[in-house]
Design the sequence.
């Protein structure tokens, strides 16, 4: 039998070269979706194959990798992807945003500000921001070529007419370097401002749709809006119940079937870090203290 | 007091142990071997090889076993393995005209040179569940003749001799064959890429699309010119050696549909072609593929393309079951961050709606 | 004549050397004007600098048509080394090249003769790799654009002397355009099509 033998970071070298060339063009043309010959990965399409291919193409033995899904290092798909790279590339992994050199994410941008020595790799399901307005690739490609984005503004304005607000709460379209309209991946619009003028390199991989795109560091990223309806990031009414953070994105945890719920940070590393530093919310629990001690002992 | 859920890693490991046990089932029942799958579930192996794009019966059988008989999961396993294999080049085109046919039928002629050969087929079996198969069944020995040396020319070649069917498009000498697993796909796509996409495409999807053309959504008046199944030689032209090296033989099914005419003031009318090819014995797949191939040639043949099966972007973007199942099933992954974002927006919109629709009297009373 | 056995070697560790080289080039492209170092060593045929050799081994293959300037293409060692180690087809028509290697900047052809991409596919453009004298001394250039926090300053000794004036065509062509990679020994600087360069004189 043809027993499988796999390369460092799984991908063969020819595939890595192809992806690396696509990444360089993506950086050179911010926000433009570069087609690439996405490979079949050992995890399903739609489960992060684009992000995994980008990470596999850039990752080296000196890197420290963090993987998050919904902001958390401990969601099952994040664990699965982190284990994949720990196994195939033998890289060090971390949950601490600050310590990571490569962060692969699905649906969130970490709360902790990113720095220059980091690359943020997004998993992207549908890279084309115009796809739900125009399903045909031939058409959307022409619209990008001509920077013809009127349709997108019409859609957003129809929302305002109907609901009084732009009814897009995540995957909120942005314009990159004043040229390409880009899908930020399904991050909540709360995270959009973090993409603007970010010191870290941001790479986006869409495996099933076979596209790679990028935002270079220190690049202007503007959320689409109107003068009379400016972009507003989503705000929460209460601080995190565990760490009392005022400006983080919160998950709603349903605590019973009688309407009880609480709000806690979706970025678990950020939340744990704040609790370890002595910040306590209304419902903060003892186990974090123990955990912090374990860390310092270990 | 609230503690965030932890221990995902242990949960994953245990889930995989549960899977391994469920796969094995009752351990007092003998384990199924790869040979048994390959020999007794041969058509499942054929499908996994075809849609997995890898001709290896043993690996396909392993994939079926590992996937607990879920063929799309098995196809996925084979594809993921295939993606890591090095490429040495493309084989010479196989000559299906020189196929050692085990089965060959044409619906367009009563008899054809080389004869109609029924071969192993479900056709004309009465679909009655057979209790004899439930255990220890030994089939009767079939009548076997000497392999005929008579040539079995393709029906389309016979029609082509008189110009009754369009000639099969010839590739330019030295033109490379597209490979959508190595190059990103762009639209409009050439026929080589379309055929590759269909050959890898989901049998059920192609069946439904092909069927839709028969029911009038892009009708193309097909006749099954010929369906043949048998062995062909595969050869590889090694640049250094200077001649084609035989690599072995594979089993293929080929379907050539003969469809209604094209023609113009300058060109005599002739039948048009639809083509299907698959590994192993896969007649439903190749016939469906031939119908869809013909439908997708609408633009090239100057026909109006209004039906789903004629829409190249629609068909090619949705035919792949590994892509489709991944994206459909990814809805299982947590989406609570985006959901929270929508929930917040919806609550805000509802609050504003309620305020706007509160009768004035009540507003005043409240104030 | 050099036989294959006598050709300078490629990377000792193909996988990790290519990764390390790529990260240097990626960082260079992401932070225009910043000087990145290429650490892995490979053999360097004839006029090829070690940075160029490492980039070739990292990014070139059968799928990347390659255009060589006269000084490169006249060296049979360079041509043989590239063919043996990368397999990249060397072509005469610069307008379909994925990469161009320039060792004699003074005779750099008009940039319009390289692939500029199309409006639909601006990525289908040539990455032009130019070997230069120095990337840490010489004239000062002020760079602005994506990847740069405000202004970056590059000190370099470059031929042709009017390279950055010629590159101004990128402003009007965008999103089409040429991406440049400058190499001096093991130092690499990238100037993607979004970077605007102003000469500050010597």
Sequence:
């Amino acid at each position: 039998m043809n027993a499988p033998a796999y390369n460092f970071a799984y991908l063969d070298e020819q595939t890595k070269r192809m992806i690396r060339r696509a990444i360089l063009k993506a950086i050179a043309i911010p926000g433009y979706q570069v087609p690439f010959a996405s490979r079949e990965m050992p995890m399903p399409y739609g489960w992060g194959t684009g992000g995994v291919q980008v990470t596999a193409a850039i990752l080296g033995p000196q890197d420290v990798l963090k993987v998050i899904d919904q902001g958390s290092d401990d969601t099952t798909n994040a664990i699965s992807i982190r284990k994949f790279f720990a196994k195939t590339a033998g890289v060090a992994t971390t949950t601490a945003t600050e310590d990571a050199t490569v962060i692969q994410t699905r649906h969130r941008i970490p709360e902790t500000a990113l720095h220059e020595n980091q690359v943020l790799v997004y998993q992207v399901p549908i890279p084309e921001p115009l796809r739900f307005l125009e399903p045909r690739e031939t058409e959307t490609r022409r619209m990008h070529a001509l920077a013809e984005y009127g349709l997108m503004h019409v859609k957003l304005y129809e929302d305002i007419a109907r609901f009084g607000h732009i009814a897009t709460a995540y995957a909120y379209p942005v314009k990159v370097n004043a040229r390409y309209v880009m899908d930020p991946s399904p991050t909540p619009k709360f995270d959009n401002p973090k993409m603007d003028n970010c010191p870290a390199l941001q790479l986006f991989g869409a495996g099933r749709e076979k596209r790679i795109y990028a935002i270079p560091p220190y690049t202007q990223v503007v959320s689409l809006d109107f003068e009379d309806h400016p972009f507003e990031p989503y705000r929460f009414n209460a601080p995190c119940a565990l760490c009392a953070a005022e400006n983080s994105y919160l998950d709603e945890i349903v605590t019973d079937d009688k309407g009880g719920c609480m709000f806690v940070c979706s970025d678990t590393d950020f939340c744990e870090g704040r609790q370890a530093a002595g910040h306590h919310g209304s419902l903060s629990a003892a186990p974090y203290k123990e955990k912090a001690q374990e860390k310092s002992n270990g | 007091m609230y503690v965030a859920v932890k221990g995902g890693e242990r949960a994953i490991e245990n889930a995989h142990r549960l899977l391994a046990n469920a796969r094995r089932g009752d351990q007092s029942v003998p384990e199924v071997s790869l040979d048994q799958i390959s020999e007794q579930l041969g058509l499942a192996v054929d499908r996994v090889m075809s849609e997995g794009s890898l001709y290896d019966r043993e690996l396909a059988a392993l994939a079926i076993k590992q996937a607990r008989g879920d063929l799309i999961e098995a196809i996925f396993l084979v594809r993921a393995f295939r993606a890591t294999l090095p490429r040495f080049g493309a084989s010479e085109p196989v000559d299906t005209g020189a196929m050692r046919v085990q089965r060959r039928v044409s619906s367009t002629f009563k008899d054809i040179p080389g004869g109609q050969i029924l071969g192993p087929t479900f056709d004309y079996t009465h679909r009655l569940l057979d209790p004899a198969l439930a255990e220890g069944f030994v089939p009767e020995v079939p009548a076997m003749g000497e392999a005929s040396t008579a040539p079995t020319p393709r029906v389309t070649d016979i029609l082509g001799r008189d110009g009754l069917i369009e000639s099969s498009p010839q590739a330019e000498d030295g033109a490379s064959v597209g490979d959508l697993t190595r190059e990103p796909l762009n639209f409009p796509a050439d026929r080589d890429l379309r055929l590759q996409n269909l050959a890898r495409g989901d049998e059920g999807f192609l069946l439904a699309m092909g069927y839709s053309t028969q029911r009038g959504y892009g009708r193309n008046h097909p006749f099954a010119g010929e369906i043949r199944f048998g062995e062909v030689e595969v050869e590889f032209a090694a640049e250094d050696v200077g001649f084609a090296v035989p690599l072995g033989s594979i089993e293929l099914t080929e379907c050539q549909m003969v469809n209604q005419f094209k023609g113009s003031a300058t060109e005599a009318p002739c039948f048009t072609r639809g083509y299907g090819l698959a590994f192993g014995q896969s007649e439903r797949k190749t016939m469906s593929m031939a119908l869809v191939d013909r439908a997708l040639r609408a633009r090239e043949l100057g026909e109006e393309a209004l039906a789903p099966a004629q829409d190249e972007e629609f068909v090619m973007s949705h035919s792949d079951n590994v892509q489709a199942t991944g994206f459909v099933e990814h809805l299982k992954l947590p989406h609570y961050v985006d959901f929270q974002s929508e929930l917040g927006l919806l609550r805000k919109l509802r609050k504003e709606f309620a305020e706007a629709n509160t009768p004035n009297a009540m507003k005043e009373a409240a104030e | 004549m050099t036989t294959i056995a006598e050709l300078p070697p490629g990377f000792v560790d193909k996988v990790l050397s290519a990764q390390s080289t790529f990260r240097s080039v990626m960082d260079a492209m992401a932070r225009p004007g910043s000087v990145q170092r290429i650490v892995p060593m490979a053999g360097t045929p004839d006029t090829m600098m070690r940075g160029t050799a490492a980039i070739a081994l990292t990014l070139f293959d059968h799928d990347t048509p390659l255009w060589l300037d006269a000084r490169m293409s006249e060296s049979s060692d360079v041509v043989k080394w590239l063919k043996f180690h990368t397999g990249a087809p060397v072509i005469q028509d610069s307008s379909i090249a994925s990469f161009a290697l320039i060792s004699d900047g003074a005779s750099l052809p008009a940039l319009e003769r390289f692939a500029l991409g199309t409006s639909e596919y601006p990525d289908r453009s040539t990455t032009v790799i130019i070997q230069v004298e120095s990337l840490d001394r010489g004239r000062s250039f002020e760079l602005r654009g994506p990847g740069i926090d405000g202004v970056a300053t590059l000190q370099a000794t470059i031929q042709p002397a009017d390279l950055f004036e010629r590159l101004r065509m990128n402003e009007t062509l965008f999103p089409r355009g040429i991406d440049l990679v400058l190499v001096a020994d093991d130092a690499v600087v990238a100037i993607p099509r979004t970077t605007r360069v102003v000469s500050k004189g010597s």
About this structure: The helical segments of chain C are 14-30, 50-59, 70-73, 76-86, 163-166, 169-173. The first helix of chain C runs from residue 14 to 30.
